[in-house]
Design goal:
The complex is a heterodimer of chains A (142) and B (441).
Chain A: E1 6-12, H1 22-33, H2 38-58, E2 62-69, E3 72-79, H3 87-91, H4 100-104, H5 112-119, E4 122-128, E5 132-140
Antiparallel strand pairs in A: 1-2, 2-3, 3-5, 4-5
Chain B: E1 8-10, H1 20-24, E2 30-33, E3 36-39, H2 49-53, E4 59-61, E5 74-79, H3 93-101, E6 107-108, H4 111-126, E7 135-136, H5 141-150, H6 164-180, E8 187-193, H7 196-203, E9 215-218, H8 219-231, H9 244-248, H10 254-259, E10 264-268, H11 270-281, E11 290-294, H12 310-322, H13 331-340, H14 361-377, H15 391-399, H16 409-429
Parallel strand pairs in B: 5-6, 5-8, 7-11, 8-9, 10-11
Antiparallel strand pairs in B: 1-4, 2-3
Classes of the chains: A alpha+beta (142), B alpha/beta (441).
The complex binds adenosine-5'-diphosphate (ADP), iron/sulfur cluster (SF4) and magnesium ion.
Chain lengths: 142, 441
């Protein structure tokens, strides 16, 4: 088992656009304060933002957790549904099921998951339709 | 180069130890300790926010007095374009420049002309493939320092081209030498500055080892003398040669207008700039080519060392430039400068991540956890009475060993109450009668 020296969990409410982005911005601030390399902070901040927005837009609500080990950062996004039926399709750039409400605000470009993958050294997504989605983004520190 | 230099300093006698400056500082660089403000040199970016906000005028910008120009046999003035917006009813820039020259200078070279050159060089630079987008203007030294301290990952986006002031200084020296053959060390070049940040960038330049400018004189310091000179000028010399674009740099978005880049964003006021830099860092502006951020509201016309209200000055600049030709630099001028001056940064801009808790990640995490615990025990009012800008920063200062929990007035009150209760408790335990008599009866 990996020993993490710090972890912090943020709960994310579905559909609450007023506070959307606050968790990822707080994660960014935390990593900066810890003195993590700027480029890595930026990658993690972008991944966390995309994950957070997906929780707000697509899920019934869930949580975002950042774990810190001396040699890696791990971001976990977990929600209680509705899950993704076809992950390969969801991963495709440009594919989006974002509702009208989200599109009006400029979301729904269908780039979020692929962006997360690009930012990650290890990217893991698991989903059960009807149950929920779990996403892991790992970035190496060394 | 080690050590710190800051133009922004504290006049201790005037400081009342209030909370205005600590709350306003964008890099949390000020604390009030033992009743007086203290500027943390590593964090200060010389933006001048504290100068503006201090009701007691205890924050000052150190600049050179006009008399200092006489250290040199020959003296050249480099007026910032913001100077042109300071005077009422002046429709010809040559009045201002001639008056300035008569204050003791042998020559006047407009920084606005340096801006025309800078624009031409930056246009060339932006053609480079493979540069990071958006490119971020390096014109405002306070913003460049802000990026070093708070957004080090954006350093790569900063345009590595010499500022209009540095370009103007080189060309002015060159011109003066060609005309009069004066020795390099006999020529003193002085920037007429709207801000402290520029003063600092002369003493501690960014992107180069040594500035070509010898000193900076505050617009505020010479405003009176200049204004009365303009009133009774004997002769007016044709010194003005910058374009409307160059002069327009005085106002926010002037640099962008000169560059005529398509996808640009110009933002003024340091808090606004911080918001945009956060978003650039979050990749929220994927299509942006150029970002101009100026620390002062309105641009340099709103600089802390200007005399006139920034909005009035902004309007004057607009009126002046509306009537000027919109010509730009000639190809000849550009080529000549390109081959004879240094127009690219010669040194990398270094990150200054002074906001981090510790160099060692494990220690940083320990401090962070301790900080959280302390923060949760504080009242969360962000009142600033402790001398730190907010409760979170006090928690950080405690963890770093620079403050104590009892600096918080509420914590202190709690502690005093506890002590008082203990005293009462103790007092109740003290036997009431005379010694030895109580139990015997
Ligand atoms: N947490 C989630 N729960 C359910 N569906 C999701 C979740 N995250 C992503 N999806 C699905 O994957 C699609 C693609 O996601 P993404 O690449 O982030 O694009 P976008 O958010 O712009 O739609 C979404 O439109 C949605 O159908
Ligand atoms: S905006 Fe202009 S006047 Fe203000 S700090 Fe920056 S360079 Fe100086
Ligand atoms: Mg998305």
């Amino acid at each position: 088992m990996k020993r993490y020296i710090m972890e912090h969990t943020y709960s994310i409410e579905a559909g609450n656009y007023a506070v959307a982005g606050e968790a990822s911005s707080s994660i960014k601030g935390l990593l900066k304060k810890l003195g993590i390399d700027g480029g890595i902070v930026r990658r993690m901040a972008i991944a966390a933002y995309e994950a957070e927005m997906n929780l707000v837009i697509h899920s019934v609500g869930g949580s975002l957790t950042i774990k810190i080990a001396p040699d890696e950062l791990l971001l976990i996004s977990e929600d209680g549904g509705p899950g993704i039926a076809d992950i390969d399709l969801a991963m495709e750039e440009g594919y989006s099921t974002a509702p009208e409400e989200a599109r009006e605000m400029g979301f729904g470009a269908g780039m979020g998951l692929s962006n997360m993958k690009r930012c990650a050294d290890e990217f893991n997504i698991h989903s059960d339709a009807g149950i929920g989605t779990k996403l892991q983004i790992k970035i190496y520190l060394k | 180069m080690g050590g710190y230099y800051h133009s922004v300093t504290l006049d201790k006698d005037k400081c009342k130890g209030c909370t205005n400056c600590i709350k306003r500082c964008p890099t949390e660089a000020i604390r009030v300790r033992e009743g007086k403000a203290r500027i943390i040199a590593e964090r200060c970016i010389d933006c001048g926010e504290c100068i503006r906000v201090c009701p007691y005028h205890a924050k000052i910008a150190v600049t050179d007095p006009l008399s200092s120009i006489y250290k040199f046999t020959y003296r050249i003035a480099l007026p910032a374009p913001a100077l042109y917006g300071q005077f009422k009813d002046v429709s010809d820039i040559d009045y201002i420049l001639s008056a300035l020259k008569s204050l003791g200078f042998n020559h006047v070279y407009e920084v606005a002309k340096g801006a025309d050159y800078n624009t031409a060089f930056v246009k060339e630079w932006l053609k480079n493939k493979g540069i990071k987008k958006p490119q971020i203007s390096s014109a405002c030294p306070a913003i460049v320092r802000l990026i070093q301290v708070r957004f080090p990952e954006l350093i790569e986006n900063i345009v590595p081209i010499e500022s209009p002031m540095e370009i103007a200084a080189q060309l002015a020296r060159q011109e003066f030498y060609q005309k009069f053959g004066a020795r390099e060390e006999d020529i003193g070049v002085f920037f007429i500055t709207p801000c402290a940040a520029k003063m600092t960038s002369i003493k501690k330049p960014i992107g180069k080892e040594k500035s070509t400018v010898d000193g900076a004189i505050s617009i505020l310091d010479i405003y009176g003398a200049l204004n009365s000179k303009i009133g009774d000028l004997q002769e007016i010399e044709g010194l003005q040669r910058a374009s409307a674009y160059g002069v327009g740099w005085a106002n926010s978005s002037g640099e962008c207008a000169a560059l005529s880049v398509e996808r640009y964003l110009a933002v003024d006021g340091i808090q606004n700039v911080i918001h945009v830099l956060e978003e650039i860092e979050n990749n929220k502006f994927p299509d942006l080519d150029f970002f101009e951020g100026l620390a002062c509201v309105g641009g340099c016309v709103g600089g802390p060392l200007t005399f006139e209200n920034g909005f009035v000055a902004k309007n004057r600049i607009k009126t002046l430039t509306d009537e000027m030709d919109k010509y730009s630099l000639t190809q000849n001028e550009f080529n000549a400068a390109k081959n004879s001056i240094r127009w690219e940064f010669t040194e990398d801009i270094q990150p200054k991540p002074v906001m981090k808790l510790d160099d060692d990640l494990t220690l940083a995490v320990q401090k962070m956890e301790k900080m959280e615990r302390i923060f949760n025990s504080l009242p969360g009012l962000d009142c600033g009475s402790c001398g730190s800008p907010n409760c979170r920063t006090l928690a950080e200062d405690i963890v770093q060993g620079e403050a104590s929990e009892l600096d918080c007035v509420f914590k202190l009150r709690e502690r005093v109450k506890e002590l008082a209760e203990e005293m009462i408790e103790l007092a109740e335990k003290i036997p009431t009668g005379r010694h030895g008599e109580d139990d015997s009866k």
